[in-house]
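Input/output pair, single chain:
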Amino acid sequence: MLALFSPGQLVRNPLEPTWGIGQVQSSVADRVTVNFEHAGKQLIITSVVELVAVSEAELQERNSKS
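Output:
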């Protein structure tokens, strides 16, 4: 299943948790370019890696721990 992502959307790569949260830069078909906190800009093929959208609750919880 292909997920649709929008520029500016925050996501995580569950296969690479150390990359942190990333912001979608562009999305064309199953190719999504994401700028991650700790890994920089990465091209993700969503038919191979299922990105997870970051919820507002997750962001608030993360910010409260900082």
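Strands lie at 10-12, 22-28, 31-36, 40-45, 52-53. The CA atoms of residues 12 and 35 lie 10 Å apart.
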